[in-house]
Amino acid sequence: MASLDSNIPPSKFETRKEFLEHLYNMMVTSFETTENTFGETRGRPRLLKTFIMESNQGLLEQTDSFDVVLHKTKTALPEIDIITLEHNGIRARFYVDTSDRRFWLLHTNDLAKHARYVFDRLVYSPKAAFDKVWLPMQMIQKVANLPRNSFRGFGLEYTDFFALNRELEQSVAELKMRVSGASSIDALNALRTEEKIENSLAYSMVRVKRGDPQNYVIDELGYAGRFTAIGGSSIDDYMSLIEITRRIYKNTLEAIERNSLGIKQVENRTLVEGQAFDLVLKREIEDIGLFADILSTSKKPFRLWGLKNKISKDYFQVFGVDLHTGDSLNLEISDHLIRVYLPKGSCGNTVLRLYTNLQHYFDSNIKLNDEPLQIME
């Protein structure tokens, strides 16, 4: 695959401070200072956006390993590279920060739909070990409620990916909604009292104002780890919100990995250590066999492939592979429970990806180990 001829300018970043100043200039020149609109429109200045990406392999060197044309330019900072991604005539430029070797930050002010498109092509390349970060509702709410943050709006997005019985009338087949403003939390609380839609209230994003009256940022945090600055002028608050979210996610992920299943030797005895992860559903799985088929057919966003084994009418096993890393995992599925067996050394993102996307595509009331997610700060 040929490299992309690019007009990326020469690197100008001699210090971290200069890099942050560059991001600041991208932010303050690219948005309209309003809190009453969502997203970008044609002809509008491009908003500063940041994607968090999990990498389980080295720096981007082999450009022919991906389903996207990639051109990379190094900067004077060893942890900062400039990449341009292109696919089907759509391109976007990213400033990639690899200071955390596992969770990279990709900053861009290109048009949102272009940036998302080529970013997805990179992440979902079958030859790469990349993944998005998947923020469950509880984690997004945790971030929104942090000190110096105020809740300023939310988006909901739900689609019944597992509409198993087409003859039954579904309570909610699809739900999309956006609400902004200081009283938006009241609207959310009102929605939560409606029994018919309670399983469908999954955050697509939250809008957060962080900072003080003079120095602040208004940021939208999406459940797939995308941040968008839509107001304010504080690059420090923008970056601190990203760093806090990345730290919380990383700590939670590593806690999952520490508790994955393995064996150890103790005084000439072989002992099993770790635990299974139980995803407890409020909504009943009507056809468990069909549910297992849909879940393990390699489709995005679950990225799981497996073979099912029927144990009984109401109990199936799936012997599977996570297509993100190629790690194995086993599932046990019953009418209100999905039990995940993650072997020691596997990527914990498998559990959070499954957990988060089941909130958006089956039951937003899902719990991990029969309790709200234990978020590690």
Describe the model.
It contains seven helices and 19 strands. By secondary structure, it is an alpha+beta fold. Among the domains are: 16-132, no CATH class; 262-368, 2-Layer Sandwich (Double Stranded RNA Binding Domain). Strands 1, 2, 3, 4, 5, 6, 7, 8, 9, 10 and 11 form an eleven-stranded antiparallel sheet that branches. A six-stranded antiparallel sheet has the order 15-16-17-18-14-19, with helices on one face. A two-stranded antiparallel sheet has the order 12-13. Strand 12 (262-266) and strand 13 form a beta hairpin. The radius of gyration is 21 Å and the shape is globular.
Question: Which labels suit this protein?
Answer:
single chain, 377 residues, alpha+beta, Double Stranded RNA Binding Domain, 11-stranded antiparallel beta sheet, 7 helices, 19 strands
